[in-house]
Write a structure and sequence with these properties.
By secondary structure, this protein is of the alpha/beta class. The chain has two domains: about 45 residues, no CATH class; about 90 residues, Alpha-Beta Plaits. Helices cover about 25% and strands about 25% of the residues. It has three helices and eight strands; from the N terminus they run βαβββαββαββ. Strands 5-4-8-6-7 form a five-stranded mixed beta sheet. A three-stranded mixed beta sheet has the order 1-2-3, with no helix packed on it. A hairpin with a 2-residue loop joins strand 2 and strand 3. The longest helix is centred in the first third of the chain and has 14 residues.
Length: about 150
């Protein structure tokens, strides 16, 4: 278990790098990361297989659910799915040092916009290590693999 507190949120890349470095030095590949901000848990994920949250910001009915089901079939770990405020561009928000998983997810979804982040007030209740926001630009046809 890795507990991280009192973070400088202006530098998510540094925080993610420190998590990766700490886990490698201490051989903690199967560990769980907990990130706290002002004593409040803001993220909780497995280093080896972080869970993903899929959010529909396109307002297409069942989009997040269908993407979640497809990713589950492909072996991804899904924490939850739901709706989000409408946005134009899809994005993968990453709190984890698992670069290979992020790359695989990006290729699978056809989303190249990837941003490291630790905390966003609009996502304050979402503890997933990876959050995918499906924007208006997302097309289910671009999803690689079988869709429900």
């Amino acid at each position: 278990l890795i507990n991280i507190t009192d973070l400088d949120l202006s530098s998510p890349d540094t925080i993610i790098s420190k998590i990766l470095e700490f886990s490698k030095v201490n051989s903690l590949t199967n560990s769980t990361v907990k990130i706290f901000l002002n004593s409040k848990l803001i993220s909780y994920y497995s280093l080896e297989k972080p869970e993903i949250s899929i959010l529909n910001a396109k307002r297409q009915q069942n989009l997040a659910m269908n993407v979640s089901l497809t990713l589950l079939k492909e072996g991804f770990s899904i924490r939850n799915y739901g709706n989000y405020n409408t946005v134009e561009n899809s994005v993968i928000l990453n709190r984890t040092p698992n670069i290979s998983l992020i790359s695989k997810l990006s290729n699978k979804l056809g989303i190249t916009n990837i941003s490291n982040f630790i905390f966003d007030p609009s996502l304050k209740d979402n503890l997933a290590g990876i959050i995918v926001i499906l924007g208006k630009d997302f097309d289910l046809k671009n999803l690689k693999g079988e869709t429900p």
